[in-house]
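LAB NOTEBOOK - FOLDING QUEUE
OPERATOR: T.R.
BATCH SIZE: 2
PURPOSE: Compare the predicted structure-token outputs for two unrelated chains run back to back under identical settings.
PRIORITY: normal
REVIEWER: second-year student, initials M.K.

ITEM 1
FIELD SEQUENCE / FIELD STRUCTURE:
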Amino acid sequence: MRKVRLDTAHAHLPPTDESMKCAVFSGVIQGSRDDKVITMTNNDARGDFALSQEQREQFDREGYIGPVRIYEPEEMEERWRSIRRQLVDRSHAIYDAEARGSATNIANYDRHLDLDLLSEHIMNPRIVDRVASILGPDVLCWRTEFFPKYAGDEGTDWHQAATFANASKKPQIAWPSEDGEPAFGGTITVWTAFTDSTLENGCLQLMPGTHHHMNYDESKPMDFQPETLNSTEKEGIKRGFFGYDYRQLQKDPNWKPDESQAFPLVMKRGESVIFWSTLMHASLPHTGSVRDYRMGFAARYVPTKVKVYPNTDDVVEYGGEIDLSKYGAVLVSGVDDYGINRIATENQRGYPFRIQ
């Protein structure tokens, strides 16, 4: 997959402390409010594509649902062709190209904030209705990332993420405490196949039912060693974590993921899988042809009560660094009664984030 080498990305942002004040600048609303804990009301969201009761029960039990069809294959092919051309133009991207890391390109985090087709994608009712039926009616999209895999690329380590502090060492999302106890955390990830995702080109692997217990401690140190890329075998499979070894975060150093409980998720272009980030997941290495690259696009969602990028104004991870001064989360459903996050009301080209 080296032929169409595309830059990849992630992002973050700090809240303010002024009570109930809002200032609008460059299409971004900044505000805050004292922390307030609410209970999610999962059945409040009743869009055309909301999960059925049976699907909700499956999701609660297994931690994922999918694949679900978001775009027809021909439409996805055309959309991806257009997006790929537009990605080269960074004139409105919120992160500098220099943010590119040596293992992955975090400068391409959050391109939904400057490319209309990606802005439209994160607001797609086929996605948002399903997510809102899990998280409740008031939902933010707080990050998007590309996940390319090219011929010869290693698979991704088994991992879970609750705070996303794993590489940066700073929590990137913070759920309010529950009854004085730290919240479990996590985000809903919607991983969309922009190309076919196959056994040969490195499809996702999931381990159903593992989303209620964290096997990893994201506060532990994890060494960045980009020289290890594509050079380490784990249980007979070439794997890594974009220059890191996720095993360093294991709570029990002697524990090993039970791969007999996992399955590979083959997806057609235009399909999505929706899963908790705390679900054990990984990907296979790309053993296919150079032409057959894999491109995934992940959009991450949380309720509006979750703080995004608390107490930080930059992100340093994967050998790169991004400045969050232009960042804003996007309200994709409901209302934001908390005001603890900076909210982007339109993208950097003026495309409005209108709830459908």
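ITEM 2
FIELD SEQUENCE / FIELD STRUCTURE:
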Amino acid sequence: MYAPDGIVNINAIGVDQPAAETFETLRAMHQRAESIRYEVLEVIPTESGYVQRHRLHVVVPQRGDTGPQHLVIPACLVVTLKDGLVARVDEYLDSSQIAPLFQR
């Protein structure tokens, strides 16, 4: 659960966003993908929250005469908790690897 003033920063975007705006980005991703799955590799507790490494598995639908694309995108989250709620998330991924999802 996010704190009411929770913030997310995705390195590919480069700005702090309210968590609600980030949910819109996630919704857009799910609308463009055939499927999305998170494979959590590890979660490391820290004094202020945790660090999570994961792989984002995305199937991009067929476009034109090319078949579906299967993307595997490594990512890292640095999560800060406050009063048991997510106060901040810094997400790091290679934006070029997710670009096919947003191409027309």
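REVIEWER COMMENT (ITEM 2): The mean pLDDT is 88.
FOLLOW-UP: none requested
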